[in-house]
Task: inverse folding
């Protein structure tokens, strides 16, 4: 019954503090603890609530918005109650409606601790169900809706460690998804590392269908990375660590191992440099080969000759080659993907080649 405490004291909801007090003493004389202890207890409880300004404010807010809160929570639960709804609607406008529902509930909550703990528990349940749906369909939009509910649950019940942990896990995954949107178009990161980043996010969600599928995918990724150029592996690992830290932390142990292995190889190459020539190495001139599309182009052969006969013979040339082998693969990868850049590079390198010595 709405505003039941006011009805118990037989007063209107706009009654002043003095009116509440007078009504209480009038009813106590009529229903004394000796004559009618049960009725007296009800009257006393109503008075204790309505005579305390803070308790009265919380009670009034709950009476005013309580029905709305229940309806909104019910709507939120209905929106995620069936898998088909998750598939069809949560990926589109329904996600925004679920998030909007959470915000409406937040705006009309009273300050009463019991009420807020109750709503926190309901929010946590809804958020957990959204997490399961987001993981099943690998949908970041659903996970963002889940994060809205878990943030509210954490705010209403800050001491709940379980809610805090779920909130932290969801925050990390949502952040990782946001970073991956940028990473997937980062030309400085090789394809194998992009696959590893996606694998780490999916693994954090627990979205792999089976251990066999996870192991198979992981082995395929490692094989691709193992067949990549060492300098590209090092650059990719270091870039993910510095530019995409949330993704790195999802699988920091393995990203760190790849970075360490690549650095050890690079360290060894300082004493056994890659610029030692081989007769048929297309890797020797990354940028020029990427520009002309073949290691047998006249320009490529001319640059290779200049490197072997001139640059390797002095300390400055060797330092240049060392830096080139670190950044050349990145530049070559970019050139291959951008035809207009390839045309510009062909013009520049072609003109520059005219000033290089011819092979004797």
Result:
């Amino acid at each position: 019954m709405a505003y039941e405490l006011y009805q118990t004291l037989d007063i209107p909801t706009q009654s002043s503090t003095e009116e509440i007090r007078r009504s209480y003493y009038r009813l106590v004389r009529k229903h004394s603890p000796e004559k009618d202890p049960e009725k007296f207890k009800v009257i006393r409880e109503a008075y204790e609530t309505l005579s305390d300004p803070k308790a009265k404010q919380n009670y009034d807010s709950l009476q005013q918005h309580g029905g709305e809160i229940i309806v909104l929570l019910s709507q939120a639960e209905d929106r995620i109650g069936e898998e088909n709804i998750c598939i069809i609607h949560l990926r589109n406008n329904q996600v925004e409606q679920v998030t909007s529902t959470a915000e409406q509930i937040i705006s009309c909550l009273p300050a009463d601790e019991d009420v807020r703990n109750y709503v926190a528990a309901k929010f946590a349940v809804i958020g957990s169900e959204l997490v399961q749906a987001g993981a099943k369909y690998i949908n970041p939009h659903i996970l963002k809706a889940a994060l809205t509910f878990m943030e509210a649950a954490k705010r209403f019940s800050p001491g709940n460690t379980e809610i805090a942990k779920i909130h932290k896990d969801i925050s990390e995954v949502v952040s990782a998804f946001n970073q991956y949107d940028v990473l997937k178009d980062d030309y400085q990161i090789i394809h194998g590392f992009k696959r590893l980043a996606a694998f780490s996010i999916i693994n954090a969600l627990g979205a792999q269908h089976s251990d066999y599928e996870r192991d198979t995918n992981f082995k395929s990724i490692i094989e691709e990375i193992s067949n990549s150029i060492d300098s590209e592996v090092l650059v990719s690992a270091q870039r993910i660590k510095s530019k995409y830290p949330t993704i790195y932390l999802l699988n920091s142990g393995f990203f760190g191992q790849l970075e360490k292995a690549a650095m050890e190889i690079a360290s060894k190459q300082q004493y056994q440099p890659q610029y030692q020539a081989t007769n048929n190495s297309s890797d020797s001139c990354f940028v020029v080969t990427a520009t002309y599309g073949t290691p047998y182009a006249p320009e490529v052969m001319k640059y290779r000759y200049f490197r072997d006969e001139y640059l390797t013979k002095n300390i400055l040339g060797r330092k240049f080659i060392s830096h080139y082998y670190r950044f050349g693969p990145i530049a070559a990868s970019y050139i291959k993907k951008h035809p207009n850049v390839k045309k510009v590079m062909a013009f520049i390198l072609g003109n520059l080649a005219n000033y290089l010595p011819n092979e004797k």
Observations:
- The CA atoms of residues 275 and 321 lie 7 Å apart.
